[in-house]
UniProtKB/TrEMBL annotation:
It comes from the Bacteria. It comes from Streptomyces smyrnaeus. GO terms for molecular function: endonuclease activity. SMART domains: HNHc. Residues 76-106 are annotated as: Disordered. InterPro entries: HNH, HNH_nuc. This is HNH endonuclease. Residues 18-72 form the HNH nuclease domain. Residues 84-95 have a biased composition (Basic residues). Gene3D superfamilies: 1.10.30.50.
Amino acid sequence: MAWETSNRRERLPANWAKLRQRVIRRAGGVCQGALEDSGQRCEATGTDVDHITPGDNHDLDNLQLLCRWHHTRKTQAESAAAKATKRAAIKRPHPSGRNEPMPDPW
């Protein structure tokens, strides 16, 4: 996540450092991401505490430990899905007046 342009840190609870440590201990310091080909658990060191369901639910059952690779991949997928949803919601008429959608601006 691009922390420089995000207000995410401001939205974390005051006890975030303690929650983060609990998640790391619970995972044994190992990434909880699954390897796609085998379905087995990733064995990389976990570095990022991730919200399983995006948003501000900081309950322990919504937090997992991921390695940088898995966290980046998950964040990119969530971002792409959010953009697709936003695109689908924008239904602008074609400037010609024909009943066609505008070209995708993204």
